[in-house]
């Protein structure tokens, strides 16, 4: 599942339309989704971004597939001459400017995007130092929270440069139309990147999948295994699957077997273990 | 050094994370100029990358990044009781490179480190300074083995893999030559042996080749050279007079007919190299701190992680009976063809 967090409605509009996402909730955050993508509009600033990220990713911890990944997509200002207005940048370093915290994604996937660093600030009017390439108001909070749910190779920040920021210069006012066009212009590149991440994650799944967990659970219940036996059973199951590269589906024959005594249960359990460790 | 590239993944070292302090070292420039296509990200401290808890070291193996840092902590450590000390009183190891591009299922580094990215410490001169200090300290205390030190420099990495971008070999050879009281051991599976041909063999520099049956290599030692290539490298350096050890470590349980396979393996060694010229052979079965094994189970899919080991004093290994059987079998096969006084069991 791809999870997208954008700060304002207009940053997400083109994505919602292109992916045909349906609105699902209004509160506490506006969310949209289809079968493969969940998107939330967080509102501006770090507190909103942290809250919305947490809200959006709350179910990922239960996932067996590890196919989940989260991306903060939006516009940002450029603090130096490395990037021009309209550039799409994959952020490789996120700095929380006020808290001096730093976050780094793991860019394991091949891509053709430009890369740069970003600093997230609390307010637009503070006289901050230009320490990184880009500036926004959400990505550090997004990254900090998202990486509590996911590994760092599943968390990305993609920003499109909307304006150049200069010291002591008033900020430009950006129109909705302008922002929408910026995002639309980069949609294809964004989606090519998300496809690569998705392919990588699909290729490498954890050893035990939902089906395996179900078999272990069913047999443990049916044979009335003790807690310690269940843990041993899990290990033996994992050994079999890692060794033979297939699930021990022959175990299904034990689904409805009810042992007549503890002695019989223990004997069956030892037999099961022997088969799995063979 | 060629590492197979998966679909969708970046090249090895597509990214270099550089500590700002490491920029002051010439080695940093040398490495970055050799890897001039890599993207550079500046960091304050290598632990910002290396020690993050929410990483997936299994996936990072597909596209490891490089981290250049300055070691501000310890430079040398007392050897672990899990490693072979060759009965040396002053057995130490050091790690100026951490992690490896090989992908061995049993490697303790995968349990020890949170990351599979490769870490280079660029202040190599500080290592030499600290080791010299230790040599002098021990020299003044005759009860500590007349100042002799056995120092392994590649427990936390297969350092020969990196000689092309981190030219450390000459410096260590020069150091060994200037310090006869120290014996340096380089442990490797690589076949990057040709650089040694540029130097004269040293009495106090030992290269230990870690070797396994070809079946174990294919199954559990991804990206490593074949047994045949390793034996070829060994025979080349033996001919030139280099001091070479063999490590049959870890001996792995590779199925019910493991005896047959190990017998065949030992026969093939004796056919390909002149065992009489081998300095020593060490034997040890797979063993690992139990906490590291837990991390194996969390991330890896190899049967090595899930075998029903026994744990004693925090170390997991094969059940006692199997362990003794494995050691005794390999030992007895080896002593038929090699001087048993030079076989060491860990």
Automatic annotation (TrEMBL), chain A:
Domain called Nucleoside phosphorylase: residue spans: 30-105
Top-level taxon of origin: Bacteria
InterPro entries: Nucleoside_phosphorylase_d, Nucleoside_phosphorylase_sf, SPL
Region forming the signal peptide: none
Biological processes, Gene Ontology terms: nucleoside metabolic process
Cellular component GO terms held in the UniProt record: endospore-forming forespore
Any one GO molecular-function label of the UniProt entry: S-adenosyl-L-methionine binding
Record-linked Pfam families: PNP_UDP_1
Protein name: Nucleoside phosphorylase domain-containing protein
Organism: Petrotoga miotherma DSM 10691
UniProtKB/TrEMBL annotation, chain B:
Highest taxon, organism lineage: Bacteria
Gene Ontology MF annotations: 4 iron, 4 sulfur cluster binding; DNA photolyase activity; S-adenosyl-L-methionine binding
A cellular component annotation (GO) from this entry: endospore-forming forespore
Gene3D superfamilies membership: 3.40.50.12110, 3.80.30.30
Protein name per Swiss-Prot or TrEMBL: Spore photoproduct
